Amino acid sequence: MRVGWEAVGFARGLRGRMTPAEVRLWGGLRMGRLGVRFRRQHPVPPYTLDFACVTLRLAVEVDGDTHAGGDGRRDAVLAGAGWRVVRVTNAEVMGNLVGVLERIWEVVGEVREGRGVR
Q: Going by C-beta distance under 8 Å and a sequence separation of 6 or more, which residues neighbour residue 73?
C-alpha cells in the first residue's frame, strides 16, 4: 500500500515531537541494535506507528495518557493487515528500558520463527 504525502508529512512532524519515553526507546532500537531495522513514526494508514519493523510487520507502541484503553480497534485493524503490536508504557520505558528491549527481542524471535525469517 502506498502512503500519501500527507501521512508522510504528519509522520515527519511527529518525529520532531517525540516524547521522552519514545526518544529513550529509539536509542535502544535504532541502527539495528536488536538485529532488525526499526523505523520511527512510520505511517500505516490510517495510523502512524511509534516504531515499526517493516520486514517483520512488527509495531512497538509507547502508551502514555492519550492511549488509556482506547487502542483495541487500532490493534484489530493492524492485526487484520498482518501487523503484530507490542505495547509498552512510558513508565516501563523510563524505569526498565533493558526489560522492554528484552521483551521486544523475544517478540522479534517469535515473529521470525513464525515467518521463517532469519
A: none
